Structure formats: structure tokens, C-alpha cells
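Worked example 2:
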Amino acid sequence: MKNRLIDLLTMCRKAGRMTMGFDAVKEDIENEKVVLLLTASDISKKSEKEILFVAEKYKVAAVKTDITKEETGFYLGRQCGIIGITDKGFAEKIKNLCPQKP
């Protein structure tokens, strides 16, 4: 399951359908570009609370993954705890893999 999620995220990154990092994701949520918000398993409580507040305000679905920030760095080329998916197709597939809410 985790490997399928990583594969999907890698494809999403290569397709340019992903935003990474708190500020960039927050801006894209406010501009209504983000379809799905993903958080890493080891994100700080403060960052998680702040980004979930913004996601809830703009009615963006959020999922807490079991991927760590270190793993995002290894597989996606940039270590971060907050990822915004901007493509509906990728978002649906990812939601099916990790249906739990943060």
C-alpha cells in the first residue's frame, strides 16, 4: 500500500500536478488549485493544525499519510511534510489508498 502511494506521488510530481511545502500549498489552496491535501506522518502539530485550518476553510479534503518527511525527500526530491495535489484523477486514486483523515 505504501509503495503504491509513493509510486502515485512520484508520477504526480513528474506530471507537475503537485505543490510542496507549507507556504506554496497554502497559497494554492487559497487560489483554489489544490484538490487534496496530504500531510506526512511526522509533521509538527503546529504546522498540521495551521494547514488543516486553511484546508477546512476552503473545503479541501485532507489525508494524513504514513510517509515521513525523510521519505518525501528521498522519493520526491524535496523533503517536506505538506503536499498539495492539484489533479482530480491523482487525488481520487490517493484517497482510495489512504482514506483516513488527519
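The chain has one domain: 2-97. Residues 48 and 93 are 22 Å apart (CA to CA).
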